[in-house]
Design a protein that fits this description.
Oligomer: single chain
Strand content: 5-15%
Radius of gyration: 40 Å
Strand order of the largest sheet: 3-5-4-6
Shape: flat
Length: 1226
């Protein structure tokens, strides 16, 4: 770009070449050559030997260069402001006229002269420049691919800038019509390619823009408009619809940009070639829609509707047939109004309404909507007299209406014990010819159904052996109806198109039922009769209802009798037969015999609430759940009277109030009134005692280490016929005596659970070993210990001496690693890792599995429970800790907290008088010795380093000002997990050297301050800005005064000379978090408080850096260079004896600091400006660490890339050395 500016003013070519070879290759560099004209003259003399005093030619050349320099400087400033304003408004920046002309001239010098209708408009160039700057190419709308010949939008639209509160104007969107011909589409492709080429002249360093971009889009045009897409020859001399071609063309471009963004292709040219040849894109977006549209147009031209085909509402596809009895409904007397021509072009509605279209260049076709003739609809002579032509059909419809109303009256008069069943085709809503009537739309029918408590389902008849879908609906009060189809009334969208519950497709392929038979009559006539399997389904439904209505024998007797009646619930045989066939009964079960007959007739039976032939409905209560209606299910009706008596213990008003308190989260204790819970417990125990014959005292007994009345639960399950009730009995392996972990195998319970077929694969652990705790548990060892004490008090844990434990449990003692995950309430979720090293999980093989409700089950439940039902979700605290494990398996769950066993002496020293926290000299000496040895050897075993790092992390809990130095150590340790012994990088040596110097009693101290009782106001508010090469830090001391004119402030620029590390990552905005934190550091140094003050600092970090608030609180990060700035900040706070509290504020409340970064000093007193030198913000040791840290993190990034690519893998756990053996005890 500088060469264009120099050429524009006539600078000699030899001067231009000299500047280019000296490195001034961009407008930004050329405009920043120096600050004033006099300084630019001196720079030209020094750089290229252009002395304006040497003669007339040199003076003339100097004048031209100065003119170009001023022009470039003005343009660059305007461009930066425009870009910043556009990014703030989240729109592409506008392209000035002169910049657009320069881009065009640069491109024409390469490919020749361009016509105005080829040159992309400024709006399109702006969009492409934005895509290149963000490295995120986005899909173009063909209506936005305009040229300069189409003209730029003169209209303006306003927008309110939320950040500044100002009202701004910007150009409106410049659009053109969609391409209507092949040549128009080819021209749009050329414009897109030219737009990329023009934008590339400003970004030559973008690798993904290499190659011929115009040529790539020419290949796209040849492909889309060639013989395989637009030129494809179809039967009957048809061609693919133009809308379909444009849709496929858009998907190809979308696919190309997607490949480029994902990094699967290096350049846009390669991505376009791959997208053009992508078979998946061709099939999904061209072949399948083309095939569907051909079938739909063929069906619609045959003069009928295909029974059971489904199409997306509003897209012109055929609708599912509603089905009919008898000879069908006959031909349609009135021809449907068309909205498009056969080739897909839209018809003009204004033209059809009395020829009212007056547009000169109408984009719609002027043809009749009835016959597609060259006349408006109002002049068409094919309109029929509906009343006269359909007198016979109207009489037939009236008779049908009378029959329907008589059926509704019959439902109203039927006794309550009568079983009713109503069948009629499903109401599929709006169709291509309008919205047909349906009995399911009658309000009278719905009222009767609600009064009788009837259920309704929809299904396809092809599910029951028919050769056609024929969507059908049942309405009945027979039990089990909801298991035979999709429950719920038909629903529709705002345009009356069908939404459900029946799916759009039945999942089968059927022959169309459109048209008439050769011998007369319609093809739909045979569908009037039910298929045989559907008759069998109806008979089974009614028979099961009758059978379940018969009185049942009450459940009773002892445990042996119950086990004989319900079958063997638990078995150790892993090759158990299917749960359907394991049920044992003492008498013949007619319902089961009928199910077997159906199974023999048509295959496996599916007891499902999700639809026939689909998966079982899983309500989370096992195979024997009441919701599944399996051949063996619990009978909860025998205990229903208890529920009624429980409700009588409280009033409806109290119950409603308790429910609302629960829902609103205002219930801190028991949810019911005082005494209600105890009365309910006594009532239930009394009923259980009466039915089971067991004494009430035995039922309310609570086993040791258990919070539940397990005996009462066992008797309850026994009464309702649960097949797994012995699990709560007194036998071995029950919840009362302790369940096995499963290391020696687990039993099967086929009547309750499905057989598990897939298991997680673990790495084999041939020799189990103990494993040290993870860093999170080491850092929070005290909190974990306190939490375990609470578990011990509840009976869930027991503390033992290690020697006694190993003597008691032998090789079953596996000391696993712990991890502590902090929760929102500042408590910890302790994770016991029984996988790595100890190998307990790899030995457990669970034979059963329980499926929990998923989205499909929730959707079905919402339909069944319609209208919306009030539901509360509850969570049981410590649910996984409430199950008692048998004592012989306790050794497999062993762990250490690291407080007592690993730390035999006090972990730290506390100076109560000085209110300081430190470490014992013994630990400090160990740390110094280990670091000195590592620095001297410069070689370390990775496991040794990892173990030492864990100890250092524990020590840093007392030395928070040193904690940020561990960030690079963590990064390097995780990256070299595949190695045994390595040379220690230079950056790690620097960190260890610094830590070693601080591990002395005088420095290794942390001042503990009392938190202020009242939250104090902010002391200062900084901000940072990174736009292009412009990086500015700013801040003001808002604690000085409420008037900013009386407050101290600073504003400092960073460049490549005083802060080169900011630019090493590429664009400075990539390091914006580091810059924001550096602004905090600059504020601390610019506005030092009174020495020793206990006052905390507060900071507005800006909306884009909310993470800095958490960063300073945690004082640890593995991001570079953010970790280095955090080290300096923590060390500065320690040296100044200060604490820092960060508060996040919206950017609107930090406008003053934002203005300082934009070098807007209005409102501030220039005499109160504080000078901040960027080179003084970081101390020398941290500057050196920045240099070495860049090399370290580049190495870490390369190691992670190789690991992701599978080039390197971590060492198996059994081949790693034990870290504690390498570094010894401390």
């Amino acid at each position: 770009m500088p060469l264009l500016a120099l050429t524009d003013v006539g600078v000699p070519e030899e001067v231009q070449a000299a500047l280019y070879h000296r490195g001034y290759t961009s407008m930004r560099l050329f405009s920043g050559i120096d600050e004033t004209r006099a300084e630019v003259r001196l720079a030209l003399n020094a750089e290229i030997g252009l002395d304006h005093t040497a003669g007339n030619a040199e003076r003339r050349s100097t004048a031209l260069v100065l003119s170009a320099w001023e022009t470039s400087r003005t343009q660059q400033k305007s461009s930066d402001e425009t870009r910043a304003e556009a990014r703030a408004a989240m729109v592409p920046r506008p392209v000035p006229v002169n910049e657009h002309a320069m881009l065009r001239e640069a491109l024409e010098s390469q490919i020749g002269r361009l016509r105005d209708y080829e040159v992309p408009a400024k709006s399109l160039i702006a969009a492409k420049l934005d895509d290149i700057e963000t490295n995120l190419p986005k899909l173009e709308d063909l209506r936005d691919v305009a040229s300069i010949e189409d003209g730029e939008a003169d209209l303006l639209q306003g927008s309110l800038d939320a950040a500044t509160g100002t009202f701004k104007m910007k150009a409106a969107r410049n659009t053109v019509t969609m391409p209507k011909t092949a040549e128009e589409l080819r021209l749009r492709h050329r414009r897109i390619g030219l737009a990329w080429e023009m934008a590339r002249t400003k970004h030559r360093n973008r690798v993904w823009l290499q190659g011929g971009l115009v040529e790539a889009y020419r290949h796209l045009s040849d492909h889309v408009l060639g013989k395989h897409v637009h030129g494809l020859q179809l039967p009957h001399e048809q061609k693919p619809r133009w809308e379909l071609v444009l849709g496929y063309e858009q998907e190809v471009r979308k696919r190309a940009y997607q490949l480029l963004r994902r990094g699967e292709e290096p350049t846009l040219e390669d991505a376009m070639k791959r997208a053009i040849s992508d078979p998946e894109t061709m099939n999904l977006h061209f072949v399948v829609p083309l095939t569907t549209s051909i079938a739909a147009s063929h069906s619609s031209s045959s003069g009928g509707r295909q029974g059971g085909t489904t199409a997306k509402p509003g897209q012109g596809g055929p609708s599912p047939s509603k089905g009919s009895k008898g000879a069908g409904r006959g031909p349609k007397p009135v021809k449907k109004l068309q909205v498009k021509t056969p080739d897909g072009r839209p018809l003009c509605f204004k033209y059809n309404n009395n020829n009212k279209c007056v547009a000169k260049n109408c984009n719609f076709v002027h043809q009749c909507q009835r016959c597609l003739g060259n006349h408006p609809k109002s002049a068409c002579n094919t309109i029929r007299n509906d009343t006269k032509a359909n007198a016979e059909l109207k009489e037939k419809a009236d008779l049908g209406t009378t029959l329907v109303m008589r059926c509704i009256e019959a439902l109203e008069l039927a006794p309550g014990e009568t079983v009713c069943l109503w069948e009629h085709p499903e109401d599929l809503g709006r169709a291509r010819n309008g919205t047909p009537a349906s009995v399911w739309q009658l309000e009278a029918l719905r009222k009767v159904a609600k009064k009788r408590g009837m259920d309704t389902i929809a299904f396809h008849q092809c599910t029951y052996g028919a050769d056609y879908p024929k969507p059908t609906r049942f309405l009945s009060d027979a039990r089990g109806l909801l298991q035979l189809g999709f429950g719920g009334w038909p629903t529709f969208n705002k345009d009356s198109y069908y939404l459900g519950p029946l799916p759009r497709s039945c999942g089968h392929s059927h022959q169309p039922l459109i048209g008439a038979e050769d011998g007369g009559g319609f093809k739909t006539a045979p569908t009037a009769a039910y298929p045989p399997e559907m008759n069998l389904m109806i008979a089974s439904l009614l028979f099961n209802h009758w059978h379940q209505s018969q009185p049942t024998t009450p459940v009773g007797g002892g445990e042996d009798q119950q086990q004989q009646q319900h079958g063997c619930a638990r078995t150790g045989n892993r090759d158990e037969e299917d749960p359907y066939k394991t049920r044992m009964v003492t008498e013949e079960d007619p319902a089961l015999e009928l199910a077997k007959a159906v199974e023999k007739e048509r295959g496996a039976v599916s007891y499902s609430m999700r639809g026939p032939g689909q998966k079982l409905f899983h309500d989370g209560a096992g195979l024997c759940s009441q919701g599944n209606r399996r051949p063996a299910f619990r009978d909860i009706s025998v205990m229903s009277s208890v529920g009624e008596e429980l409700l009588a213990l409280t009033t409806e008003e109290d119950l409603r109030n308790d429910l609302y308190r629960l829902a609103l989260g205002r219930c801190e204790g028991p949810p019911f009134r005082e005494g209600v819970v105890e009365a309910a417990r006594n009532l239930r125990l009394r009923h259980l005692s009466q039915r089971s014959g067991v004494e009430k005292a035995k039922l309310e007994h609570v086993e040791p280490r258990q919070p539940f009345m397990l005996a009462a639960i066992a008797e309850h399950l026994k009464i309702i016929g649960d097949p797994d009730w012995p699990a709560f009995g007194t036998g071995p392996g029950s919840f009362r005596t302790g369940v096995p972990l499963g290391v020696q195998g687990m039993p099967r319970v086929p009547e309750v659970f499905e057989a598990k077929e897939k298991w997680r694969k673990y790495e084999p652990v041939p020799w189990p070993t103990d494993k040290n705790n993870y860093t999170s548990a080491v850092d929070n060892a005290g909190a974990v210990q306190r939490q375990f004490r609470k578990e011990e008090a509840l009976g869930a844990m027991v503390e033992m001496d290690e020697g006694a434990a190993r003597e008691r449990y032998g090789d079953r003692v596996r000391v696993a690693a712990l991890a502590a995950l902090e929760k929102s309430d500042h408590s910890f979720r302790v994770v016991h890792d029984a996988t790595h090293n100890v190998g307990v999980n790899s030995q457990i093989k669970v034979e059963d599995q329980l499926r929990y409700p998923g989205p499909a089950e929730i959707k079905m439940a919402m339909r069944v429970l319609f209208p919306p039902t009030f539901i509360l979700a509850a969570d049981i605290a410590r649910a996984h800790r409430l199950v008692l494990v048998r004592e012989e398996d306790w050794g497999y769950q062993t762990c250490r907290t690291g407080v007592d066993e690993v730390c035999p002496f006090p972990p730290g020293q506390v100076d109560v008088k000085e209110c300081e926290l430190g470490m014992t000299e013994k630990r400090l000496r160990w740390a110094r010795d280990w670091m000195e040895r590592t620095i001297a050897n410069k070689i370390v075993q990775v496991e040794e380093f990892r173990s030492a790092l864990g100890r250092l992390a524990f020590m840093m809990s007392a030395f928070t000002h040193l904690k940020p130095l561990l960030g690079p150590l963590y990064s390097w340790t995780t990256a070299v997990d595949h190695c045994r012994t390595l040379q220690v990088p230079a950056a790690i040596i620097l960190i260890l050297t610094f830590l070693k110097a601080t591990m002395v009693p005088g420095i290794a101290r942390t001042k503990v301050r009392v938190s202020p009782e009242v939250e104090e106001d902010h002391i200062f508010r900084p901000d940072a800005k990174a736009e292009g090469e412009t990086v500015v830090l700013g801040g003001w001391c808002c604690g000085d005064s409420h008037d900013r004119g009386q407050c101290r402030w600073f504003s400092v620029k960073l460049d490549r000379s005083n802060a080169p590390w900011v630019f090493e990552a590429g664009e400075p905005y990539r390091a914006i978090a580091s810059l924001e934190l550096l602004g905090t550091l600059a504020s601390i140094k610019a506005f030092p408080p009174v020495q020793g003050s206990a006052r905390s600092f507060c900071l507005s970090a800006g909306t884009d850096n909310l993470g800095n608030r958490h960063l300073v609180s945690r004082l640890l990060t593995t991001k570079f260079p953010l970790c280095i700035v955090l080290m300096q900040l923590a060390w500065t706070l320690h040296c100044k004896d200060l604490e820092l509290r960060l508060d996040w504020l919206p950017r609107l409340q930090n406008r003053e600091a934002d203005a300082l970064t934009n070098e807007d000093f209005s409102g501030f007193n220039m005499d109160l400006r504080v000078e901040v030198k960027p080179e003084d913000l970081l101390e020398e040791q941290f500057k050196e660490l920045l240099e070495k840290g860049g090399e370290l993190f580049d190495e870490i990034k390369e190691l992670r890339r190789k690991r992701k690519a599978g080039v390197m893998k971590s060492l198996p756990a059994n081949k790693k050395s034990k870290g504690t053996d390498l570094i010894g005890r401390w």
